[in-house]
Amino acid sequence: MELILDITLLSLLLVTAVYIAWTRDLFAAVMLAGIYGLLSASFFMSMGAVDVAFTEAAVGAGISPLLMLSTLAICGRAQRANPQRAILALISVTVVGLLLISATLEMPAFGSPDAPAHLHVAPRYLTDSMREIGIPNVVTSVLASYRAFDTLGEVVVIFTAGLGVLSLLGLQGETLPRQVQSPMAEPSHLVLRVVGKVLVPPIMLFALYVQFHGEYGPGGGFQAGVIFAVGFILYSLVFGLDAVERIVNRSLVQALAALGVLVYGTVGVLGIVSGRNYLDYSGLAGDSVTGQHLGIIAIELGVGITVAAVMMLVFFVFSAQLVRGRVVQHAS
Amino acid sequence: MLLSALYNYWVVVLLMMTGLYMVIAQGNLIKKIIGLNVFQTSVFIFYISVGKVTGGSAPILSQLATVYSNPLPHVLILTAIVVGIATTALALALVLRIRQSYGSVEEQDILTRDSQC
């Protein structure tokens, strides 16, 4: 049964990917990319990677198509063909693909428990993490404690990407005439407005649950941050950007993005102050397991704040571009 | 059973090549980014497939299970997905800037404009 599910999902993924490459309508390609994200989330679920499936469902099927659609709204949905290049590309891709497939013949069988990947650090995480960290979700203990330094690097990458988007596009949006409505906000869509309003509080509540329950079940700062941002994005899609900016304005979001990284780094420094290594939480409380708990909650909070703020910031900047495009169009 | 042992890896290779094809062959910058996303997700699928143990449950410790999937690839991919969306956003922002300066997102138009000046 598991095998059939596996083969079906992967075949569907393949069909979707080929159609994305085939179609010349970019709108269709973006919508299919959303389906591709949802399919891969289902695949991760069937592989037992619940935390990953969670993230991919929120990112791959939610935010990523949304950002691409906003880009399409500015750049147009038609795409030009290039037949000569296609043949050349097809040949080189086939050669590379055959080489890679011949390399897979030497790989350990899928799911075999004695594959090299399962023999080094993984058993230690599974057997000792309960005693050392004291939380059931091993993914969270590896992410937030054993490999906290990696995660710090990734949070900084996200923050830097947010800064990059801001420096490329953000500064142009400031001169907008204030009375311009968000292009998506159509007052006539009564159903959207009612349903959107009802949906926002449960989304926020769910984000908080995912944030603080990440130690015991699937979840954590990354997922919660994305879900939290989705709540605000949904609201601004239905009621317009101005309505959201009345609650969280651009400078607040920018400050929050930096605050998350700061919280993460400060917890690391507290580790040094308590006489341990950077990002070692054992000394934060009386016994080491409580210390680990405190440290993980604090850094997950930092991760959540930065991820949510950067996602919202990127969305705000993109929709400000969209509004600006409309204004320019209107004026000319 | 060669098929069930390596099927996942073959699909990963095919997906990866589909993504690579889009990056090489399509001149439209947005389509290239979608191709990169397809490529990126195929790598995620590869890592998660490597982390799977037959009969293993999700790596959340409980009394009911004794065999778990490998948690390490999950950690790597979980963060890679969020970093991936952040870099995609940066790439899309670059596309928007290129569109402002060149008036087009087709690679050919951009190259012709560049060779004119």
From TrEMBL, chain A:
This is Cation:proton antiporter. Keywords: Cell membrane, Membrane, Transmembrane, Transmembrane helix. The keyword Membrane applies. The chain crosses the membrane at residues 6-22, 29-47, 53-74, 86-105, 151-169, 190-210, 222-241, 253-274, 294-318. Residues 115-169 form the MrpA C-terminal/MbhE domain. Residues 191-313 form the Na+/H+ antiporter MnhB subunit-related protein domain. NCBIfam families: PRK12504.1, PRK12507.1, PRK12508.1. Belongs to the CPA3 antiporters (TC 2.A.63) subunit B family. InterPro entries: CPA3_antiporter_subunitB, MnhB, MrpA_C/MbhD, MrpA_C/MbhE. Its main location: membrane. It comes from the Bacteria. It is a multi-pass membrane protein. It is found in: Cell membrane. Residues 12-73 form the MrpA C-terminal/MbhD domain. It comes from Microbulbifer flavimaris. Pfam families: MbhD, MbhE, MnhB.
From TrEMBL, chain B:
The chain crosses the membrane at residues 6-24, 36-55, 75-96. It is found in: Cell membrane. Keywords: Cell membrane, Membrane, Transmembrane, Transmembrane helix. Coiled coil: none annotated. It is a multi-pass membrane protein. Belongs to the CPA3 antiporters (TC 2.A.63) subunit C family. This is Na+/H+ antiporter subunit C. Its main location: membrane. Pfam families: Oxidored_q2 (PF00420). InterPro entries: CPA3_antiporter_subunitC, NUOK/Mnh_C1-like.
